C-alpha cells in the first residue's frame, strides 16, 4: 500500500508542478504580449515625432516641432521604463537574471558566484498577477529517505550553500576559499 501511496504522491507533485509551470507560461506570454503592445506604441510615437519634425522643416522653423517632440519623448521614456519593469517581472517568474559577466544566476542571488558582482536589491514592479486558488494539502507523515549526496560547500562567512564551481558566495559576496 505504501508503494501506491508514494506513486500517488509523486504523480500529484508532478501534476502540481506542471500546473504551476503552465500558469507561469501563461503569465509570461501575457507579459510578452503587453511588451509587444508597448513597443508598437513607441513606434507610433516615433512616427508622430518624425511627422512633426518634417512639418516644421517644411515651414523652415524646426523650433515649431519642439512643442510636440518633447512630450512624445517623455512618453517614450516612460514606456521604456514600463517595458524594463515587465521584462524584470519575466526574469523573476523564470527565476533568473544575468550578471555583467554573462553568467545566468537564480533571481534571488545577491552576488555572482563566478565574478563576485553585487546585484542591486530588486525593486518591486507593480504588475498585475493572476493567482490560482491554492488548495491545502493534508500533511503527510514523514518518511525516511536515503539520499546520495556529494560534499556540500558552505560559505565560511555566512554559511550559505555554495555550488561546486562557485568562486564567490551568492549571498554575501565573500570569496570562496579553494580546497586545493
Automatic annotation (TrEMBL):
<feature type="coiled-coil region">
    <location>
        <begin position="76"/>
        <end position="103"/>
    </location>
</feature>
<dbReference type="InterPro" id="IPR025874">
    <property type="entry name" value="DZR"/>
</dbReference>
<protein>
    <submittedName>
        <fullName>Zinc ribbon domain-containing protein</fullName>
    </submittedName>
</protein>
<feature type="domain" description="DZANK-type">
    <location>
        <begin position="101"/>
        <end position="173"/>
    </location>
</feature>
<keyword id="KW-0175">Coiled coil</keyword>
<dbReference type="Pfam" id="PF12773">
    <property type="entry name" value="DZR"/>
</dbReference>
